[in-house]
């Protein structure tokens, strides 16, 4: 049971966090018109990209290190509690349909397990040990990268995940929204996006959540670009698992090659619907088995495979 002394210490800790700061000028915001509150909130949100922009060198350095690990077979693992954990799970779950990654390549761990995505699991975020157990359960190795996510930068689950991962030699990234955070200090790559106090005191699903989402978008998207999952700004590794994505696949092949509908259908049919392979057959003038071999030799990078296919 937590003692009054412990609570006093925690309160003092929270009082020192920018993300928890009280804003007297908004103390009567509930008396304003809905439109006025919406304008205020919109203005608050507009400041988030600028805060992210200040940390682009750190973000880029972390991505380069991460991409190098993944190119050698490592995994990307997000770990967080509450909103931060949910954002990590969201980003991980969008990688297979967008970049045709295996579901085991990018993982999201949330304190309290999958049920915590929709229901708060009391106390789960307070355990460093739980984070270590969750990482052990997925057989973390020194090839992997763990991204601890916490708006406050003090969440034990996120810090515990980073500390455990680093002790095993894994690459570690700490994403926080407070300067001088324990999470950033614990990680090899600390990223602190300081967005300031929230519209609602301590509600870090707002600006802090938006900042974290923007950075996670960058981490996954730029890593996949570095891994050859795109061709220019086309998602050539998209997995056509439904009608919308099948239509998108055809459109991507058309944009990349300028080929007609019949040629595109033939190419996709010959490559079992693999967009990247279909583009290579059309632009490189090779058959489907050759396209597959060239892409395998180029570690999936379409530009390199095209260079190899074209006579010099």
Percent of sequence in beta strands: 5-15%
Helix percent reads 40-55%
Oligomer: single chain
**What is the H/E string?**
HHHHEHHEHEHEHEHHHHHH
Low-confidence stretches: none
**Biggest β-sheet description:** 5 strands, parallel
* Helical stretch tally: 15
Estimate the mean pLDDT confidence: 92
Topology overview:
Layout: H1 4-15, H2 34-46, H3 48-53, H4 56-71, E1 76-80, H5 82-93, H6 95-99, E2 106-110, H7 128-137, E3 145-150, H8 156-167, E4 171-176, H9 182-186, E5 189-192, H10 207-226, H11 243-257, H12 261-270, H13 275-284, H14 288-297, H15 302-309
Parallel strand pairs: 1-2, 1-3, 3-4, 4-5
Describe the protein's architecture and organization:
By secondary structure, the chain is α/β, with parallel strands linked by helices. Helix content is 53%, strand content 8%. Helix 8 links the parallel strand 3 and strand 4. The radius of gyration is 23 Å and the shape is globular. The model has no long low-confidence stretch (mean pLDDT 92).
């Amino acid at each position: 049971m937590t003692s009054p002394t412990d609570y006093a210490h925690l309160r003092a800790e929270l009082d020192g966090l920018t993300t928890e700061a009280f804003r007297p000028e908004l103390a009567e915001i509930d008396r304003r018109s809905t439109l006025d509150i919406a304008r205020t909130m919109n203005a608050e949100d507009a400041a988030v990209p600028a805060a992210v922009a200040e940390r682009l060198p750190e973000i880029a350095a972390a991505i380069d290190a991460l991409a190098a690990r993944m190119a050698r077979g490592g995994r990307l693992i997000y770990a967080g509690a509450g909103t931060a954990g949910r954002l990590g799970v969201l980003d991980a779950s969008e990688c297979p349909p967008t970049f045709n990654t295996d579901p085991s390549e990018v993982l999201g761990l949330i304190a309290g397990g999958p049920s915590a995505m929709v229901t708060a699991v009391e106390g789960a975020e307070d355990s460093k040990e739980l984070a270590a157990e969750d990482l052990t359960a997925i057989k973390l190795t020194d090839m992997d990268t763990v991204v601890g996510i916490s708006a406050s930068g003090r969440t034990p689950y996120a810090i515990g995940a980073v500390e455990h991962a680093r002790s095993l030699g894994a690459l570690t990234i700490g994403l926080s929204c407070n300067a001088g955070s324990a999470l950033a200090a614990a990680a090899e790559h600390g990223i602190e996006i300081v967005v300031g106090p929230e519209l609602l005191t301590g509600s870090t699903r707002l600006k802090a959540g938006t900042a974290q989402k923007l950075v996670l978008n960058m981490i996954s998207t730029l890593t996949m670009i570095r891994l050859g999952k795109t061709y220019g700004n086309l998602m050539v590794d998209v997995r056509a698992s439904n009608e919308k994505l099948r239509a998108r696949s055809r459109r991507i092949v058309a944009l990349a090659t300028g080929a007609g509908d019949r040629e595109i259908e033939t190419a996709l049919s010959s490559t079992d619907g693999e967009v990247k392979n279909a583009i290579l057959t059309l632009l490189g003038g090779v058959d489907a088995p050759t396209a597959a071999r060239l892409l395998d030799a180029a570690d999936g990078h379409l530009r390199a495979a095209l260079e190899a296919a074209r006579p010099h």
